[in-house]
């Protein structure tokens, strides 16, 4: 394999790695907005709902219920409307992956 192809492949891999890293960081940024009520990485203080380690599908269903107004809330119905369904899916997956 010539050097040009090797460099092109290496650059492509580095670019893909950087993009994946940026996506992970974006989900962490979104999750940080949840920390006020649900604690850092979803580990809430007593009296608030912890999200860490919960079932991803159940979290997503709750988020969609807030977004559509099926589940009453004081603030969650407003917050969820600020995210796309794909962003909410990423948040649900992030919190589900956190250790309880």
From TrEMBL:
The gene is fccA. Keywords: Electron transport, Heme, Iron, Metal-binding, Signal, Transport. Residues 1-22 form the signal peptide. PANTHER family: CBB3-TYPE CYTOCHROME C OXIDASE SUBUNIT FIXP, CYTOCHROME C4. Residues 10-99 form the Cytochrome c domain. The keyword Metal-binding applies. GO terms for molecular function: electron transfer activity; heme binding; metal ion binding. InterPro entries: Cyt_c-like_dom, Cyt_c-like_dom_sf, Cytochrome_c_Oxidase_Subunit. The keyword Disulfide bond does not apply. This is Cytochrome subunit of sulfide dehydrogenase. It comes from the Bacteria.
